[in-house]
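Try this one yourself first.
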């Protein structure tokens, strides 16, 4: 029996709320990141803003606490899963493929990796009802992004591969945070600060820093969203949800990302979803209700 059954109802509901909020922020991420690279900033500029803002905010905590019981090796694993490689793969992919592709492929890859990893590595065997719910959510995710997945050509395949790789790293983070019972704030702080220390010197010394010439409004907007909400708030809430619910059930929130991205895309990118995409939103929502309404 999964350990989630031992959790009291109030704690379970709080974890679900954390997961929903993280899903909303990550659903906005491909849309707002795509919006950013279509303006003045490049993918590398947006990544620099994310790491700079989040790293500086959380640096005092890391200086005081260090890596704690995690140690450097585990810290680096978490950083790979939600830090430099994950973020750069996702944002660079948006230069080749539309936000709709990221909204589908990144969470789908995360769900596959975290579910299989939770099963074989953590022995967190998913119940049949959970597997069915996850499949339903993934089906909804596929429907919501089907049009964008079939309407593009050129080098879109390269962006898709980068999205899949980014999702796989996210799955690794999901498994690791559950296996090591990671404190959510500690993990968020370490990932942000280590990413800042490793990436910013490379960006300023050998890159082409576009943030030095970009409009202040773009810098402030992307800095706040990427550095505060996407890097700190969403990761903090997601880690809390996974710690309570487990890698398998925690991964279900990733299936909502394409649905949220589709809705936000209407207002930000003027991308009106087709009837197929609307069906995907409904299907994914139904899958989530099924999973969390299930009681063995």
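Now uncover the answer:
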């Amino acid at each position: 029996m999964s350990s989630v059954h031992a959790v009291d109802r109030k704690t379970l509901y709080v974890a679900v709320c954390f997961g929903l909020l993280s899903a909303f922020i990550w659903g906005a991420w491909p849309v707002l990141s795509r919006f950013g690279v279509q303006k003045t900033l490049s993918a590398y500029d947006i990544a620099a803003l994310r790491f700079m803002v989040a790293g500086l905010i959380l640096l005092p905590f890391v200086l005081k606490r260090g890596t704690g019981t995690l140690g450097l090796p585990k810290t680096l694993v978490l950083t790979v899963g939600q830090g430099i490689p994950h973020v750069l793969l996702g944002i660079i992919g948006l230069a080749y493929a539309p936000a709709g592709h990221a909204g589908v492929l990144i969470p789908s890859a995360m769900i596959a990796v975290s579910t299989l990893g939770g099963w074989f590595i953590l022995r967190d065997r998913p119940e049949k009802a959970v597997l069915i719910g996850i499949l339903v959510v993934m089906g909804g995710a596929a429907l919501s992004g089907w049009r964008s997945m079939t309407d593009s050509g050129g080098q879109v395949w390269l962006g898709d591969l980068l999205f899949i790789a980014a999702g796989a790293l996210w799955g690794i983070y999901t498994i690791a945070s559950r296996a090591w019972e990671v404190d959510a704030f500690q993990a968020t702080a370490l990932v942000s600060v280590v990413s800042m220390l490793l990436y910013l010197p490379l960006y300023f010394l050998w890159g082409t820093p576009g943030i030095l010439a970009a409009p202040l409004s773009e810098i402030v907007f992307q800095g706040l969203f990427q550095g505060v909400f996407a890097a700190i708030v969403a990761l903090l809430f997601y880690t809390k949800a996974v710690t309570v619910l487990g890698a398998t059930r925690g991964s279900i929130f990733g299936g909502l990302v394409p649905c949220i991205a589709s809705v936000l895309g209407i207002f930000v990118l003027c991308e009106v979803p087709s009837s197929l995409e609307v069906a995907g939103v409904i299907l994914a929502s139904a899958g989530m209700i099924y999973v969390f309404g299930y009681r063995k």
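Discussion: The CA atoms of residues 1 and 252 lie 18 Å apart. The chain has 13 helices and no strands.
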